[in-house]
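Please decode residue identities from the backbone states below.
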């Protein structure tokens, strides 16, 4: 007998909750913020809006379904099941946070703060939840993801981008190679390499794209292509600056061989969840086989 679908509501601790946890009471948090020229009432109002949105979405889950709720900090310990429908209640970045833990489950993004969130990934309002949950598999966009795989079986998957470089963004030394480019390899010293998707083209990747004059066409979020950029490559007798940007299709990859004591790779801005790479290790970055199924 097949299990009933399970709605998994993903949320994060609000800024108000973090402030009260840090300072102990609403009044003490208000005092500290006032001394810094901020008003806690605005933060408290956004907190209440998020709580209302969570309550409205929870009430919209069909009575025959199972339910679960998971906070962002607990995602790595949560076991998603094939029959899950994931409902992200919060900001765009929360969709990226959950994407790497999924294997084809549909994701519904609910915007708790319209006007403050761009709404690129959280495209719906709480009032839309009942209609969307009635047919969660319909109208999904399949968004391309990026993966970094090290030669010791470490793997990192991200929705927006993967950064490879030194912890603290200091000078990283490595050898950069390209698949399908006659085996081109170049020793480099830089502040790191960024490889991003079409979804990531609305964030960090776009800043580098604009800085380089926008010469490479940005992929769409569903296109199986990536853009990569080397940040601040340094020319010297031992290091070059020829391979500094490019586009990868679904069958191509960028290969980085570490020539520093310690480099890291992290995805979607979360440095605490990183691959740790040592001298001589190789890491391959390319399009990931899984896609994020985002309800449009």
């Amino acid at each position: 007998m097949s299990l009933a679908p399970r709605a998994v509501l993903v949320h994060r601790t609000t800024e108000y909750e973090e402030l009260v946890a840090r300072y102990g009471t609403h009044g003490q948090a208000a005092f500290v913020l006032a001394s810094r020229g901020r008003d806690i009432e605005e933060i408290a109002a956004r907190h209440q809006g998020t709580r209302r949105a969570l309550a409205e979405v929870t009430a919209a889950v069909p009575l025959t379904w199972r339910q679960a709720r998971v906070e962002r900090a607990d995602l790595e310990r949560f076991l998603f099941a094939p029959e899950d429908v994931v409902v992200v209640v919060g900001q765009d970045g929360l969709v990226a946070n959950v994407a790497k833990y999924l294997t084809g489950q549909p994701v519904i993004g609910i915007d708790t703060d319209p006007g403050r969130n761009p709404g690129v990934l959280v495209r719906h309002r709480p009032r839309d939840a009942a209609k969307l949950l009635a047919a969660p598999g319909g109208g999904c966009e399949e968004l391309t993801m990026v993966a970094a795989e090290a030669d010791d079986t470490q793997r990192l998957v991200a929705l927006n981008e993967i950064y490879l470089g030194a912890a603290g963004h200091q000078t990283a030394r490595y050898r950069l190679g390209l698949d399908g480019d006659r085996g081109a390899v170049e020793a480099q010293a830089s502040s790191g390499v960024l490889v991003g998707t079409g979804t990531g083209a609305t964030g960090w990747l776009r800043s580098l794209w604009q800085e380089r004059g926008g010469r490479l066409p940005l992929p769409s979020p569903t296109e199986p292509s990536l853009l990569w950029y080397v940040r601040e490559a340094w020319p010297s007798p031992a290091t070059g600056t020829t391979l500094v940007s490019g586009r990868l299709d679904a069958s191509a990859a960028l290969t980085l061989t570490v020539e520093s004591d310690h480099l890291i790779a992290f995805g979607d801005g979360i440095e605490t969840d990183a691959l740790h790479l040592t001298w001589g290790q190789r890491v391959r970055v390319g399009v990931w086989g899984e896609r994020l199924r985002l309800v449009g």
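Observation: Residues 4 and 63 are 10 Å apart (CA to CA).
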